[in-house]
Design a protein that fits this description.
8 helices; DOCK_C_lobe_C; DOCKER_Lobe_B; DOCKER_Lobe_C; Serine Threonine Protein Phosphatase 5, Tetratricopeptide repeat; Methane Monooxygenase Hydroxylase, Chain G, domain 1; DOCK7 protein
């Protein structure tokens, strides 16, 4: 419904019944999309209208649908699937306006990188010719000077929704973590001498956080990236993150209901098995055997010690 059309205010939608009809359609669509929490929000607008009209029949239908929506939330707990997200960058003059643009694509749940890669390769391969199109396999920053000007390049990276710590207080349920998303993150491991992976004490990590111009879910399934920031983690910070992740995995495996012994065994093996050369034991030997000389590292040193305290408790 656009305001500049002639006669829009006298059209059939611009009435109370028209509004009610549109809202009912919206609720039905949200229900089909499995976004039952949003169904509730739409009905919050509809209920007062029917209450004012004393329309008990409509109200009873709505409350029936609300009951369905909420019971689905309860029954599908842990089984709901929303999108998988990928960052896609386009490089090369052949793309015209798209050159050097980056987008976040929302794909159906559990889409593998290979699937979206295959699809985009096919689509742009047909447009430019398969010999012209090249997919960049890593997620390192692209240096335009090193690219062949006669080719078109696509870089595809799996990204995850990113939240600040304060946001996590409000984003409690699985739905909260998959709705109204504008920031996404991917990590790239690197070492100072150019290799991706190295020993523990030389392993850095680059976190790239992308902000899109609109929030997902959106009318379109791709939204352009308007802001990009990078955080570099030093080797000890990488170790802290790894230890926190291991501790979380342990906590999850020990509190699972019903208990899952296979899962627990896998997590435990990864945590205490000495076969893994970069397991917790190695981390402790590399970073905690000496107190660092640099006072700037004291905080990290203490934080890692606290991580180990947590870890041993688990």
């Amino acid at each position: 419904v656009s305001p500049d059309e002639e006669g829009i205010c006298s059209g059939k939608y611009f009435t109370e019944a028209g509004l009610v009809g549109l809202l009912e359609q919206a609720a039905a669509s949200f229900s089909m999309a499995g976004m039952y929490e949003a169904v509730n929000e739409v009905y919050k607008v509809l209920i007062p209208i029917h209450e004012a009209n004393r329309d008990a029949k409509k109200l009873s239908t709505i409350h029936g649908k609300l009951q369905e929506a909420f019971s689905k939330i309860v029954h599908q707990d842990g089984k709901r699937m929303f999108g998988t997200y990928f960052r896609v960058g386009f490089y090369g003059t052949k793309f015209g306006d798209l050159d050097e643009q980056e987008f976040v694509y929302k794909e159906p749940a559990i889409t593998k990188l290979a699937e979206i890669s295959h699809r985009l390769e096919g689509f742009y391969g047909e447009r430019f010719g398969e010999d012209v199109l090249e997919v960049i396999k890593d997620s390192n920053p692209v240096d335009k000077c090193k690219l062949d000007p006669n080719k078109a390049y696509i870089q595809i990276t799996y990204v995850e929704p990113y939240f600040d710590t304060y946001e996590m207080k409000d984003r409690i349920t699985y739905f909260d973590k998959n709705y109204n998303l504008r920031r996404f993150m991917y990590c790239t491991p690197f070492t100072l001498d150019g290799r991706a992976h190295g020993e523990l004490h030389e392993q850095f990590k680059r976190k790239t956080i992308l902000t899109t111009s609109h929030a997902f879910p959106y009318i379109k399934t791709r939204i352009n990236v308007i802001h990009k920031e990078e955080i570099i983690l030093t080797p000890i910070e990488v170790a802290i993150e790894d230890m926190q992740k291991k501790t979380q995995e342990l906590a999850f495996a020990t509190h699972q209901d019903p208990a899952d012994p296979k899962m627990l065994q896998m997590v435990l093996q990864g945590s205490v098995g000495t076969t893994v050369n970069q397991g917790p034991l190695e981390v402790a030997q590399v970073f905690l055997s000496d107190i660092p000389n640099d006072p700037k590292l004291f905080r990290h040193h203490n934080k890692l010690r606290l991580c180990f305290k947590d870890f041993t408790k688990r």
